[in-house]
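Lab notebook, design round three. We kept the backbone fixed and only want residue identities now. Task for the bench partner: fill in a sequence for the structure below.
Input structure tokens:
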């Protein structure tokens, strides 16, 4: 019997044979296990014996290595002792060599010092200042420490004393020569003296004497120009420029010429700081001469008196025009002069290595590499997304702001100079005079406003052209003024003039002349009487009263809108050329935006006036309306073939529109006004015909069409569209007839279901102007289309 309990298996033997069999099996298994155990013990024994043999061999080898290591240690110790002896001897030899070098250098310095002392004395005795200065320059090349050591030695004390005494005597001699050279007129001689000052270590004094000479030369030339142009010249003699403007221009040219001539030499002698100092000295002299010329200009032009008359609103605008031109020229040439001077100084500073950004030294770079590769750096991780800043001493960081600081310092100097302050005063007066000049001329143009003459090609009154001519002139002058703030101020005054004086004038003229529209709508006759729209509504003695009719007033409004946009485009182009900085462009565009707004207001005013005109002329088209009401599109074959009869309706309609609404009005309207009127007439025509077709007018029923009538409708709509497109000059009117064209297309289908070919996804590039309800209504105009088929359309 066998019983199983979990993983244990219990066998129950019930007879002797089973017991003997089980015992025999167990003994056999025991013998097999003993064999396997003996085999495993044999393998382990052999492996252990092999390892023991290897360990014995390693012990023998290790004993030999220990012996060799001790020998190597003794050898290294001997080499170290020998190298210590050699390095000590080398350091001793290097010290002896250094002392020999110092001794030789000291001997050479003493010999050179004696040579300098003897050379200076000999050159001074021969009055050769150049040679003497060269010997002094050699002495000055010695370092301060070297000169102090030579001064303390008894052997060279006398030579040092002689050199110092000779330098003092030489400096006095050079100063005397400098005084004579500055009083003269030779630039070469002054440059030679300046070089002597540099050689003897008096660079600042040499630069000062050199600048004094240039300032004296500029003063002489300016004084001569003032004498010739302002004192001895006949005031009545015509000249290209105003004399004061000419004097100021020559002053700028003189300063620029001297700076250009001596820039290279000054840079070689005194460096970039010498260039900056030269520019400041020349600018100070220019301030003196320029303010004197500007003061004389102010007095002779009586600008204080002119400003008083302007405040009293009694100045003559004709007198102000040349003054404004002169001020603009003065400012423009002054700005060019400042640009020249600052540009040259900035260029020199940028080329100077002293202002170049300092680079990190090799030692600091090596330190950064070691820091990044060190274990501490590896353990200290940088957060993701952040940038690790190298630990660099502050003194080693790039000093890129030194150049900017130097440029800013010179720009501040120019901004605070006396000439700049004089120009600011001129600018303040210029803006006030320009604003007065602009306003007075605009008011005068309105006072003398006349209609266009028959001989002229214009269709606007004289005021519009005159006003925009004045505005254009003022803005062009402001652009040439070469000052951004001045330009923006003048543009703001232009915006004010357009938005107040001109807009009020346009609206007033339309209001004065709109009374004639009643005469237009109530007048009798087969043709439109254009006299009502061209001639003034009444005769008045008041100068402010209109001298022309509604058509000209309407032209004025549209023309003012176009002129405003054109003026903005011209100003924007010229201003962007004069001021290339993108930041300046944004500032200019900000003030020019008001011109676009003024154009929009003019256009809106004109549109309102044109709507009134269109209403007046369309009220005369009762005959055209009657023609539409009486037409029938239920045609037989004979009637359709009768082209004259079939086209009679459209001929009557178009002839009525042309005679009663258009007539010869085209020659009195500018193109934009004419196109606006044509568009409104086209809209009225399309709406009138559509209302008649669809029967949406009270008391009327929809037109009924058969197949031939549908073809005739298509022909009529094409004739209508062609008529208005032919009369339009610059615009398009075909979009106005899109609804009519789609109605014509619907009634020309062979059956209502054809609409699916052009509806929804099948429409392609076609845009439906009709709603689904209007599509069904259009299809229902065909007498042979089933009402049920139309009703069942899924649109």
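Proposed sequence:
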């Amino acid at each position: 019997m066998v019983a199983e309990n979990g993983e244990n298996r219990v066998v129950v033997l019930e007879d002797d044979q089973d017991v003997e069999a089980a015992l025999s099996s167990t003994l056999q298994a025991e013998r097999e296990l003993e064999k396997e155990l003996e085999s495993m013990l044999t393998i382990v024994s052999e492996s252990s014996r092999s390892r023991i043999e290897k360990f014995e061999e390693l012990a023998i080898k290790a004993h030999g290595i220990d012996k060799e290591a001790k020998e190597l240690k003794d050898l290294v110790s001997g080499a170290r002792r020998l190298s210590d002896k050699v390095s000590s001897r080398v350091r001793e030899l290097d010290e002896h060599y250094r002392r020999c070098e110092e001794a030789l250098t000291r001997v050479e310095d003493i010999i050179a010092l004696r040579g300098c002392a003897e050379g200076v004395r000999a050159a001074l005795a021969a009055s050769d200042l150049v040679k003497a200065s060269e010997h002094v320059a050699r002495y000055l090349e010695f370092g301060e420490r070297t000169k102090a050591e030579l001064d303390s030695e008894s052997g060279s004390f006398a030579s040092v004393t002689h050199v110092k005494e000779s330098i003092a005597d030489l400096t006095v001699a050079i100063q005397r020569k400098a005084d004579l050279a500055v009083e003269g007129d030779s630039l070469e001689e002054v440059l030679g003296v300046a070089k002597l000052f540099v050689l003897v270590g008096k660079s600042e004094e040499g630069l000062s004497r050199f600048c004094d000479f240039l300032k004296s030369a500029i003063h002489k030339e300016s004084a001569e120009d003032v004498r010739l142009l302002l004192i001895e010249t006949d005031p009545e003699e015509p000249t290209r420029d105003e004399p004061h403007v000419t004097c100021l221009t020559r002053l700028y040219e003189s300063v620029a010429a001297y700076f250009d001539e001596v820039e290279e030499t000054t840079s070689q002698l005194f460096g970039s700081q010498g260039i900056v100092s030269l520019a400041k000295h020349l600018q100070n002299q220019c301030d003196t001469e320029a303010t004197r010329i500007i003061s004389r200009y102010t007095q002779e032009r009586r600008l204080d008196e002119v400003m008083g008359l302007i405040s009293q609103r009694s100045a003559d605008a004709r007198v102000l025009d040349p003054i404004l031109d002169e001020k603009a020229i003065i400012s423009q040439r002054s700005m060019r002069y400042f640009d020249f001077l600052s540009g040259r100084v900035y260029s020199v500073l940028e080329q100077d290595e002293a202002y170049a950004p300092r680079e990190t030294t090799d030692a600091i770079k090596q330190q950064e590499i070691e820091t990044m590769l060190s274990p501490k750096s590896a353990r200290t991780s940088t957060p993701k997304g952040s940038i690790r800043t190298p630990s660099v001493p502050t003194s080693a960081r790039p000093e890129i702001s030194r150049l900017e600081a130097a440029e800013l310092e010179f720009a501040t100097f120019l901004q605070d100079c006396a000439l700049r302050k004089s120009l600011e005063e001129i600018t303040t007066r210029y803006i006030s005079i320009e604003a007065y000049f602009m306003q007075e001329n605009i008011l005068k143009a309105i006072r003398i406003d006349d209609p266009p003459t028959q001989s002229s090609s214009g269709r606007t009154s004289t005021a519009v052209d005159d006003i925009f001519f004045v505005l254009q002139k003022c803005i062009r002058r402001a652009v040439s003024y070469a000052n951004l703030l001045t330009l923006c101020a003048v543009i703001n005054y232009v915006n004010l003039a357009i938005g107040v004086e001109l807009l009020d004038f346009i609206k007033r003229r339309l209001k004065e002349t709109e009374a004639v529209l009643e005469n237009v709508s109530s007048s009798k006759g087969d043709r439109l009487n254009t006299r009502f729209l061209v001639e003034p509504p009444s005769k008045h003695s008041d100068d402010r009263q209109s001298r022309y009719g509604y058509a000209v007033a309407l032209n004025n409004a549209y023309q003012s809108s176009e002129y405003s946009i054109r003026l903005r485009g011209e100003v924007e182009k010229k201003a962007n050329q004069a001021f290339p900085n993108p930041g300046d462009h944004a500032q200019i565009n900000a003030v020019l935006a008001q011109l676009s707004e003024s154009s929009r207001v003019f256009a809106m005013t004109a549109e309102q006036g044109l709507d009134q005109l269109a209403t007046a002329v369309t009220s005369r088209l009762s005959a055209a309306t009657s023609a539409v009401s009486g037409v029938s599109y239920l045609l037989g074959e004979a009637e359709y073939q009768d082209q004259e009869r079939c086209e009679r309706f459209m001929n009557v309609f178009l002839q009525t529109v042309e005679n009663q609404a258009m007539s010869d009005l085209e020659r009195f309207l500018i193109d934009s006004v004419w196109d606006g009127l044509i568009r409104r007439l086209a809209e009225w025509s399309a709406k009138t015909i559509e209302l008649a077709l669809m029967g949406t007018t009270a008391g009327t029923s929809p037109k009924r069409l058969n197949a031939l009538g549908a073809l005739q409708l298509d022909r009529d709509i094409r004739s209508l569209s062609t008529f208005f497109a032919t009369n339009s000059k610059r615009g398009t009117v075909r979009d106005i007839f899109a609804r009519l064209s789609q109605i014509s297309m619907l009634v020309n289908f062979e059956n209502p279901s054809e609409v699916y070919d052009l509806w929804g996804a099948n429409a392609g590039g076609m845009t439906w102007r009709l709603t689904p309800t209007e599509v069904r209504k259009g299809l229902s105009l065909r007498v042979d289309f089933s009402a049920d088929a139309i009703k069942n359309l899924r649109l």
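Keep this in mind before ordering anything: The radius of gyration is 53 Å.
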